[in-house]
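Shipment paperwork, digital attachment
Item: protein structure file
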Amino acid sequence: MSRRSSSSNGSSGTWLRCCLVVFAIASALGVCGPVLYWKFKKGMSLRNPISSSSSSCPPCLCDCPPPLSLLTIAPGLANLSVTDCGKNDPELNKEMEKQFVDLLTEELKLHEMVAEEHMHRMNVTFGEARRLASQYQREAEKCNTATETCEQAREHAEALLTKERKVTSLWERRARQLGWDGI
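Attachment content:
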């Protein structure tokens, strides 16, 4: 069973190759055939002077216009620039204007998005700065409260020291009156 399918595949492959070869030959003859025919006919007329004299005709005098050049057909293509392409076409101008407006709109939207992102970052930074300023304010208030407490404690200690000096001075005077001699 496998031999039959492989032989049928082989014959279909051969058939396909034959068709491709026939197609290639027909295509080549279709493209090159007329040129070869006229060259062969011209070569025959040059070899046979009798047939060339009988079939030759006098040269034609015609008043034909010169062949069109690329500059006269499409002046914009001669320098390969297409900057002026479609400037006189109102529909194309309208479409290009739409595209230009769309591009400008998109550019404005992008600028707006960037500005919004920048504003968002500024707001976040501003909020962070306010939070830090509030924290520093609380710390400063704590420091001021601690300084005031320390100042009050110093004043109290100073008053106690003054009082203690007075008491010490009083006891020292009494001791001297009772005969103490301090060194």
